[in-house]
Amino acid sequence: MSRKTEFIIKWHSCFTNAFYFIRKRLYEGVWENAPLLKGSVLDFGCGAKPYRELFTNASSYTGLDIEKSGHSHQDEHIDVFYDGKIIPFGEEHFDHVFSTEVFEHVFNIDEVLPEIKRVLRKDGYLLITCPFVWPEHERPYDFARYTSFGIRHILEKHGFTIEKEIKTGHFFEVLAQQRIFYTFCLIPKKPAFLYPILHQLLILPQIISCSFLNFIAPNIIKRKDLFHNNIILARKN
User: Fold this and answer.
1) Could you list the residue range(s) of the whole structural domain that residue 32 is in?
2) DSSP 68
3) Same-domain status, 188 and 101
4) pLDDT over 70 for what percent of the chain?
5) 164 and which of 3, 33, 61, 233 could share a cystine (Cβ 3.0–4.6 Å)?
6) In the predicted model, what is the mean pLDDT of residues 185-205?
7) Could you give the CA distance from residue 22 to residue 14 in angstroms, rounded to a whole number?
8) Is the pLDDT score of 93 beyond 70?
9) Tell me, what CATH number does 34's domain have?
């Protein structure tokens, strides 16, 4: 499974993807909002551009990333590298900016957000996702987790208005996904034929049981004070 395709969650992804729930909710949230971003779009921290296909109304799509990060950029087709401080484009160069699962890796967020705002046209959208409950990853470049109040505060402080806010997942789905992730960490990945077998035996039943609970449980018990990701649609003032 490539780094890009593992983010595109279909019904059959449960048979192969141990990150099924967190990735499914992210995919749904981006899919819901991506059509609003029309014209030129900057993908800030683009990586493999896993959601590029959802931006059907974008006339241009530019991927920007930092050269030194917690994973290899091999085969990611990044359009522009930058130094982590100055985005190499002029003022109001882009109609909209998209950034997914990046802000937790940005230590100097108070320097970076003014740069994003600078290259974004007035009234342009900033669509971001960032985790709240997820283990450390891309170490040592994992610096932050944002509550819904925290990410709202920092965006408003830098001149953005929040237009839509989504918390993905809920209490027992988050607990199930963490348990599945723990199982995934324990399962041997070599030889290559072994993992798919163990996935069906040890992970798939957990995905099915949580999916069944999702279906039958009333919304009143699906508490949103524990959630996987923030998805924020903000507009530049």
Assistant:
1) 5-170+223-236
2) S
3) no
4) 95
5) 233
6) 96
7) 12
8) yes
9) 3.40.50.150
